[in-house]
Amino acid sequence: MEVLRVSHLTKEIGNKTIVNRVHMQVNEGEVYGFLGPNGAGKTTTIRMIVGLIQATQGSVRICGHDIGTDREKAMKMVGAIVENPETYSYLSGYKNLIHYARLAGIQNKEIRIKEVVAFVKLTDRIHDKVKTYSLGMRQRLGLAQALLGKPKLLILDEPTNGLDPEGIREFRGLVRQLADQGTAVFVSSHILKEMEAICDRIAIIKNGRIITEQNVAKVLEGQGQKVRIKADEIKKVEVILQQNEISYQVIDHNTMDIPIAESEVSELVRFLSMHNVNLRSIETVKDSLEELFFNFTADEEGEKKNA
User: Fold this and answer.
1) How far apart are CA 167 and CA 162, in angstroms?
2) Co-location of 108 and 253 in the same domain
3) Is the same domain home to 8 and 119?
4) For residue 301, what pLDDT is reported?
5) In this structure, what is the dihedral angle of CA atoms 245, 250, 254, 259, given to the nearest 10 degrees?
6) In the prediction, which pLDDT does 305 show?
7) Among 123, 130, 69, CA closest to 100
8) Please, are residues 184 and 262 in contact by the beta-carbon 8 Å criterion?
């Protein structure tokens, strides 16, 4: 079942187009990752989806309700953590949730608060003041707040920013559990390994446009194998590979990837030795979401090269 549909979404400020005709669809029980370099338009897109800023063109529909013409019904379906969770540090976690439950008009708020607090594993500390919470606890309190209204769509903007590895692992488990229960989760993060571990599908935005949408499982299943070499004269290696029509990708001033099977590695080493290439190291590597991201977001004249 479709929960979120974004169509032709555009944001212009003056003569500058920040977001350009973005299309996305997120389904029930799906974790959808939204990736892009800094300044690509991620946060602007999210702020339009949750109604914090108005789009120049296009539409956002949540469970069939257009946020432009049926905003109240649409936003009742949404829970969100956009940037840092809003909490009152001088109040306890419980009193924060009581406050937001009242604002949202939550029925049987004490029962619902008990449910969300147990879900995010804050029961033992919920009556302590928020100023005594760790960053991970504050993030979990923010998640509890976002879940008060039993949203069909949960939007998370950099939810694990600043968390330690244990905090990230705990938050990942909560998100996957929500998706398994049927919640559609839309998450933006710069931690690519985490997105690889948690997302079902991802979209990459660059310069305000969606440049690719991928099924994460298929990306990982179809991992291509390649060798990564380090050499003293990488420019010399480039020339040799180009002359022999061998594909490659430059990583930095002394590193490059060459897509070949493991069985061909020894032949590659002999070939480069014949051309007096001094190899410092060679290893086999596999593609990942990180590789996909950098391949799609590299500048045209940058690292991505093929003979």
Assistant:
1) 9
2) no
3) yes
4) 36
5) -60
6) 40
7) 130
8) no
Note whether 290 and 192 are within 8 A (CB): yes
What is the pLDDT at residue 221?
66
Are residues 143 and 167 in contact, defined by beta-carbon separation less than 8 angstroms?
A: no
d(CA 156, CA 79): 9
Cα dihedral 93, 99, 101, 103 sign: negative
Between CA 134 and CA 243 the distance in angstroms is: 57
Range of the domain at 72: 2-220
Residue 224 pLDDT? 58
CB-based contacts of 107: which residues, under 8 Å, 6+ apart?
A: none
Query: Which residues, in sequence order, are CB contacts of 292 under 8 Å at separation 6+?
Result: 204, 212, 214, 219
Question: What pLDDT, on a 0 to 100 scale, did the predictor assign at position 223?
Answer: 57
Give the residues of the chain that fall short of pLDDT 70: 83, 221-224, 286-287, 298-307
The C-alpha angle 172, 174, 177, rounded to 5 degrees, equals 110
Tokens 């897109």 found at: 45
Residue 294 within a domain: no
Show which of 203, 220, 237 is a domain's final residue: 220
Q: In what order do the strands lie in the sheet with 184-188?
A: 78-81, 153-157, 184-188, 31-35, 201-206, 209-215
Strand (E) positions, the chain? 2-13, 16-27, 31-35, 57-62, 65-66, 78-81, 153-157, 184-188, 201-206, 209-215, 225-231, 249-252, 255-258, 279-286
**The pTM of the whole model exceeds 0.85:** no
